[in-house]
Write a structure and sequence with these properties.
Strand content of chain A: under 5%
Largest sheet of chain B: none
CATH class of the largest domain in chain A: Mainly Alpha
Largest sheet of chain A: none
Oligomer: heterodimer
Structural class of chain A: mainly alpha
Number of strands of chain B: 0
CATH topology of the largest domain in chain A: Rna Polymerase Sigma Factor, Chain: A
Order of helices and strands of chain A: HHHHHHH
Number of domains of chain A: 2
Radius of gyration of chain A: 16 Å
Distance between the termini of chain B: 25 Å
Strand content of chain B: under 5%
Order of helices and strands of chain B: HHHHHH
Shape of chain A: globular
Distance between the termini of chain A: 48 Å
């Protein structure tokens, strides 16, 4: 598969996986670049076992974990913003939708990693079996983590609404 | 939790989309540098072998040539055997990545031992065969002195290789240990 075709088909899913680990701005761009290179390098190893989407998302989430690890070990530089608003010109309606999406992602990024991965993959539309294969846990464990993640997310969103 | 809520979450999730970087040039550079590193190793070995075979063909230097051929062959075979199974799965998880790092560190340590003992063997053989080889030359003492000095210096570096490789790898081993603790903490 050509990179152009792969990006057309799976680019948005890669972007969302990246967004669940990194806030907007240079950090997200760096992680996206890291993921893209990893996908590019891993493609020859794809043997058609499982869907290509699962294969790519596994890479994206593993890179995301590595990124969070590195970030946790590197203190933010003075004046460095964690969440940088997207300032590109867009239509008002699109801006509002993007803001909502970004707000949602901010809550998602606040979840513990184990829950965040499972919820992001479920929102992407993957089955419990596929999520289990990507994360390396049993289907039952996926269900448990997903339940906890939904609960934590709902609590976080409602707390913000109430504030 | 209601289906409506889940649907609304999914809608917000699916809105998320942005520009991905064009990484083709960078990826090509990375792939090229990786290929070049592998080529460089085998070019060095091939160059060493070419010189050794040439010496081997000369009746006066047959023993030295044969010894150098044996050195190149031992290093290549040893290197390939040690590196077997070390490779990483690029789509693997963090624990697999850690497994790869540990395998690589072990392989580096073994390669350091390989260099130590193979070179030491060659050095010992060289001490025995070199003086008779240059006996009929105009000034054998200088040839022996220069050659032995160079070989002793290399022997010092290669004999201590396991020690300085271990010292250099200690930092990476600490990093692996910290990674493991972090993965456990995050229940991953």
């Amino acid at each position: 598969m050509k990179l152009e075709d792969l990006l057309r088909e799976h680019g948005p899913a890669i972007w969302r996986a990246v967004a669940s680990y990194a806030p907007p701005g240079a950090e997200r761009e760096d992680l996206a670049q890291d993921v893209m290179i990893a996908v590019w390098q891993a493609l020859p190893a794809y043997r058609g076992e499982g869907s290509l989407r699962s294969f790519i998302l596994r890479i994206a989430h593993n890179r995301g974990l590595s990124h969070v690890w590195r970030r946790s070990r590197t203190p933010l530089a003075a004046g460095e913003e964690v969440d940088v608003p997207d300032t590109r010109p867009q239509a008002d309606e699109q801006v509002a939708r993007n803001q909502q999406a970004e707000q949602f992602l901010r809550h998602l990024r606040a979840l513990p990693l184990g829950q965040r991965q499972v919820l992001a993959l479920a929102l992407e539309g993957l089955s419990h079996q596929e999520i289990g294969a990507i994360v390396g846990i049993t289907v039952e464990n996926v269900a448990v983590r997903l339940g906890r993640a939904r609960e934590a997310m709902r609590k976080s969103l409602s707390e913000e609404e109430a504030a | 939790m209601s289906d409506t809520e889940w649907t609304s979450w999914q809608e917000k999730w699916k809105v998320g989309e942005g520009p991905l970087p064009d990484i083709r040039a960078l990826a090509r550079r990375e792939a090229r540098s990786s290929r070049l590193a592998a080529i460089a190793f085998f070019v060095l070995i091939a160059a060493g072998l070419a010189g050794s075979v040439k010496a081997f063909m000369d009746p006066k230097a047959r023993l030295a040539g044969g010894m150098a051929v044996a050195f190149c062959a031992s290093m290549s075979i040893g290197y390939l055997v040690i590196r077997r199974g070390v490779g990483a799965r690029t789509d693997g998880g963090p624990r697999e990545a850690l497994g790869f790092l540990e395998r690589r560190l072990r392989a580096e340590q073994r390669i350091a031992h390989l260099v130590r003992w193979v070179y030491l063997g060659m050095f010992a053989a060289f001490i025995l065969i070199f003086p008779p080889m240059v006996r009929d030359h105009a000034d054998p003492a200088i040839e022996i002195g220069v050659s032995f000095t160079g070989m002793v210096l290399v022997a010092i570096v290669t004999f201590t290789a396991p020690w300085w490789v271990a010292r250099r790898n200690r930092r990476h081993q600490d990093e692996v240990a910290r990674w493991k603790r972090w993965l456990d903490e995050q229940q991953l």
